[in-house]
Amino acid sequence: MIMDGDARENRLRLSGDPHRPLYHFLPPCNWMNDPNGLIQWGGRYHLFYQHNPVSASWGIIHWGHAVSQDMFHWEDYPVALSPTPGSWDQSGCWSGSAVNYHHIPTLIYTARNGEEETVCLATSQDDLVTWQKHPRNPILVYPPKGVTLSGFRDPFVWQNGSGWNMIIGSGYPGKGGVVFLYHSNDLMRWEIGGPLLEWENLDYGEMWECPNLLRFGEKYLLLVSVMGQSRVVYFIGDYQGGRFILQQHGTFDAGGSFYAPLGFYDETGRAIVFGWVWEGRSRAAQLAAGWAGVQALPRQLSLEQNGGLKIEPIKEIETIRHNICDVGRVTVDADHEMVLPFSGNCLEICLAAAISKNSCGIRILCAPDGSEFTEIGYDCQNGTLYIDRRKSSLSPETIKDLREAKIDLAKKERLELRIFVDRSIVEVFANKQWCLTSRVYPENNSSLNVCLFSKQGETTFSEVRCWQMERIWP
Ligand code: DQQ
After folding, report:
1. From atom 10 of ligand 1, which residue's Cα is the shortest distance away?
2. What is the pLDDT of residues 239-278, one digit of tens each?
3. CA 5 to ligand 1 centroid distance, Å
4. Which of 31, 32, 34 to mutate to test the pocket of ligand 1 (most atoms within 8 A of CB)?
5. What residue spans of 227-282 are helical by DSSP H?
6. Which of 14, 247, 373, 385 would give a disulfide with 363, using CB separation of 3.0 to 4.6 Å?
7. 39, 126, 131: which is closest to 80 by C-alpha?
C-alpha cells in the first residue's frame, strides 16, 4: 500500500464541498489538467495527470499519479515527476505517455524550459512508484529544421513491431495544425518520419496539442486537442506510409469542457480514453474551493460497422450503481413537464424516446422553486442535442451558456441518452455516438429534482431508469 497520508487527509478535508464529484477521478487537492501516461501494468491501471501540487491554479506542472483495479476506485501514489531546477524540465513536466519497454515502465514526456519544449524520458525500478529521469535527457531536441512552429509537445508513443513510433502535437502559425511522426529502435534516438497529418486552414486552429493515434482493425482514429478552440477533434482514416489518409472528422465532445484526452489499450484490448474536464467557474471560485479539474469517466472507443465513432462509458461503471428506480414507459404531453420519482446529484439516468416532430428532454438539478436547473434536450427543428446551463446556477461566478451538437438520427431511430450527474459535472452520451460534457454549480442544496419535458408535440419515453451512484472517495 502506497497510499499517501497527506492525500487522504486532503481528500477528507475537501469532502464536505457540495460541488466536489463523488464518482469521478480528481486529485486529493489543488490543480489537475491532462491525463498522462495511461497504462495497465500487472493488471492495475495507472493514471498520471498534469498537476500543480501547491495551488488550485495552473502553474509549475508535475505528474500526479493514482492506481486502480477498476478505473473507479483509486489509490493515491506519490507525485511521479517533478521539475528539476536547472534542467530541461525546470519550468514543468508537461504531457506525455507511458510504454512498457522490454518490461521497464517508461514515461516519455514534454520537458518545458521557459518556452522551449523537448522530449524527456524517465523509468521506474520499483513497480512504478518512483521515477528516475534518464541521464541522457532530452531524447528529442529539435523540431523539423527550418520551420517555425506554434509548439512541439505531448509525445504519444506506441510499439510498432520491433521499433517504436511517436507522434508530437504542433502547428504552423497562421496556417493550421500538424502532427509529426518519429521512429526509433530504442526510445533514445529518434528520426523524423514527416508530418502524419497537416491541416491547411485555420478551421481547427493553429496548434494541435495531445495527439493520439488508435487502431481499430484496418482503420485509425487520430485525436487532437485544438488550442484556442477548447475542443477535441477526431479524424478517422487509414495510416499508410507514415501518412494519415483522412475519411471523416468532427468534434469529439460538444459540451465545451472536455480537453486533452489520452487513449490506451488495456490488457483485454479495449481502447479507453480519459480526458480533462475543466472548471466552469471563475478563477477566484476555484482558488476558494482549493481544487480544480476532474477526469471524465473512462470512455471505451470503437468503430461502428459504417465506420463511425462509437463512444460509451466503460462497463465497470455498472459496478458503482445502486438503488435503481425504473419508471418504465411514460408519455409527456406537448408543452408539459413531468416530475420524476427520483432525485439527486449523484446519478446515472437512462432515457429512450421516440422522435418524430417533437423536441424533448430532461431537466436535472432543478430547484423546487424553478430558480435553478440544467436542461438536456433534443431540438427537432435544428436536429441538435444540447445542454443548456443558462439557469444552472444562481452564482454569478459560473459560465452560463448553451452547447449543442448536430446529431443525425436515422429514420425511426430512438434517441437514447445516458446522463451522468456527479455534483458539478454532467456527462451526456447519446446513441453511443455523441457526447456533451459540462460543469454546473447549483447554489441551492435542494436543487436535486429531475423532470422530463416535451415540446412541439407529445413524447413517449419508452425507457426511464435511474441509479444512485456510489461515492468512490472517503
Ligand atoms: N497541457 C499540457 C501541455 C498540453 C496542454 C501542459 C493541453 O503539455 O499541450 O499542462 O492541455
Report:
1. 94
2. 999 999 999 999 999 999 999 999 999 999 999 999 999 9
3. 28
4. 34
5. none
6. 373
7. 131
Cα separation, 266 vs 373, in Å, equals: 38
Does residue 93 line the site of ligand 1, with CB under 6 A? no
What residues pair up with 233 in beta bridges, in sequence order? 224, 251
Average pLDDT over residues 151-174: 97
Set of cell numbers at residue 354 = 421516440
Sheet holding 191-198, edge to edge: 152-160, 163-172, 176-184, 191-198
Per the CB < 8 A criterion, the answer to whether 429 and 435 are in contact is yes
Give the model's confidence band at 1: pLDDT under 50 very low, under 70 low, under 90 confident, else very high: very low
pLDDT at 130 over 60: yes
Angle CA 36–79–126, to nearest 5: 90
Please give the grid coordinates belonging to residue 205: 486552429
Enclosing H/E stretch for 278: none
Specify whether the CB–CB gap between 239 and 220 falls below 8 A: yes
Cβ atoms 37, 96 nearer than 8 A = yes
Q: What are the structural domains of the chain?
A: 7-12+20-315 (2.115.10.20), 321-468 (2.60.120.560)
Percentage of the chain exceeding pLDDT 70: 99
Task: Tell me what pLDDT residue 4 has.
Answer: 66
